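hey so u asked for the seq, here:
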Amino acid sequence: MRRTVPSVLVVMLLALSAPLSAQRLYRLELGAGAGYNRFASKLELTSAFGGTLRAGYWLYGPFSVEAEANFASPKTDTPLKKSVGTKAFGLWGLANFPVGNTSSFIAKAGIGRTSYGSCGDVSVPGVGPCGSAGALLVGAGVRIGLTQTIFMRYEGTINRSFASPTLSNIALQAGISVMVGSKPLVDTDGDGVFDRYDRCAETRLGALVDKKGCPTDQDGDGVPDGLDRCPGTAEGAAVDAAGCTQDTDTDGVLDGIDQCPDSPTGATVDATGCPTDSDGDGVFDGLDRCPQTPAGATVDALGCGNDSDGDGVFDGIDNCPNTPMRTPVDASGCKITPPPAAKGDTTAQKLGLPEEEWTLPGTVWEFKSSVLAEQALPTLDSIVVTLLSDPRAQVEVNGYAHDRLVPVDNTKLSKRRAEVVRDYLVNKGIDVSRITALGRGSKVLIVADTTEGARIINRRVEIRVIHNP
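ran it, structure tokens below
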């Protein structure tokens, strides 16, 4: 029955143990207890209860050292039943591992010395051992908190002597420990790192911290992990208090990375967030409805060129801005003398018939394209008016290409351009029988085809309206 008492006591003390309201910094531990000692059979001593005194010092964190003295008075396992006073002294090193909020597990080891009575009666058989021997000490136990500074302590130890023959004694102990001079470990910012060890003692509540108590910030945006709602922010992007990015001008480039944070809505921007302007007319791509305006041309708010005199050459690059209507002009907007008719032409010049001439310059045709630009429509509409006012008039549409392709391709491209003009006139009500559309290729060049400006001049469509008598 007596052997069950320690077990019952452990259960009662566990039930009574109170949770610690705060962690503390321990320094000096004083304790006492009682224990059950079982001696090696070679000593011929009975098991006996004894007492224990200990004093310990906490070094750093979970590590401490302590000195311990254990006393017992076993009797010899002989007919004499002689009492032998045993004393065990030890120096221990302890590792203390927290278990929950109130307890800690103890692992300990050390060296010591054990003495067994006096040797005055050594000549008397049956009086038991005498003398002393060094010993290796190991043990384990548990410390259960009753308050912040008072603990119940339970442990078991093994005392193994160095002398020959080797002897092993076992002790089971229960006692109380008092932490003298302990101080509470405060965590002012609540980050789980006590102020004593916290190098960043004013961390915002909820932020994740490293072992030194300083906030971590994986994306480097200045908002600590744990508070950062957008933890994968691109490097350099500006963020709000929640760690999320903004794009003030909605151009798709984040503030902080955006070098042009006031880009107009709808403008196309580059990787730095700055608007692009492919044709250099001052109207940004994405907002420019005429994105291939020739360099130097004057444009309106939509990026489309102005043509005050209606000659097909934009203001700004028109060197003759007051050319009379329907006057053939070159790429600079100045009047030109039409080239002689190609062999086989049946034009009004050969017949001496009155005629009018228009030119759709290369600025209204894209490179290798027969798509008609909008700026050509006013000229074509004027031709329609002329044809409607003279039902007997005939039209020659001659398409030309610059000399950058093989001759066959030049001819095909120039013919497609002439046919596009013919189809526009037909759609406006002019009978197709009145229109001749020819592709002249690059046979007749106005200027030497050596520069881009020259190629624009040569890439043209000439329209002649011949008035029959």
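The longest strand covers residues 131-145. Residues 1-22, 338-351 have pLDDT under 50 and may be disordered.
lmk if thats what u needed
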